[in-house]
Amino acid sequence: MITPADLRTYVINLPRRPDRRTWMSRTLPPDLPVTFTSDWNGPFDGHELTRKQLEAAGYKLFPWQIESDNPWWSRPLKYGEIGCTISHLACWQHAAETGDEKFIIVLEDDAIVGPTFLEDLLVGLRRLVPSNPFDLLYLGRVPLAPQGERPVTPGFVSPDYSYCTFGYLLTRPAVDILLATHLELAIVPIDEFLPSLYIDHPRPDTRSRFPKQIKALACDPPLVHQRPKDEAGSDTEDSDFVEP
């Protein structure tokens, strides 16, 4: 029987965004202990990052900008994107080093969880395990290729290419798989990294660096939604491009 004790939850949050931390603290279930990344020291804030700081911390950037009709690929990385990826990576590292919970939940601080979130999640996990094994479970996302998706069991689909990482769950073995890719040595947007691990990524260079190696599922309908950008802002986009 899966219970709240089997869950460990992280919330991606910056120290300069106590408003978002308050929002999340008020809306998350009290039975769900939460670790906020704003309590950690790290190169997480795109407003403060520099190339020199990243290199000193041992991070390397993937050569992201290419000639493409895709506007997200034809421009350099933004420091906010880098900080966001490093924040997710820090959560996985912390989970791998501490605790023994079966599942790791990662939420960004603009996530919206409903009043029955925990109950619905536990019911869903009990339905999935062990008959439908998975590594990654999107709790919410933006599907980019819905025509390529298929139902797995009531309430869940096999996702195709998807953006947004405001809410997902990992099994503990999946945490080790993600860390073994050494994302810190080839930083890409977290939105692109996760799909590359469960589909053949449409960018050959990304597909080659991060080949398909996990099984993903997605909640359908989603359990987690995202606050509108005009309401919560975007710490990812509200940052400078990395200089050449």
TrEMBL record:
Domain of life: Bacteria
InterPro entries linked to this entry: Glyco_trans_25 (IPR002654)
Molecular functions per Gene Ontology: transferase activity
Keyword Transferase found: yes
Chain positions covered by the region annotation Disordered: 220-244
Keywords from the named record: Transferase
Compositionally biased tracts (Acidic residues): 233-244
Record carries keyword Transferase: yes
Residues covered by the Glycosyl transferase family domain: 8-121
Protein name per UniProt: Glycosyl transferase
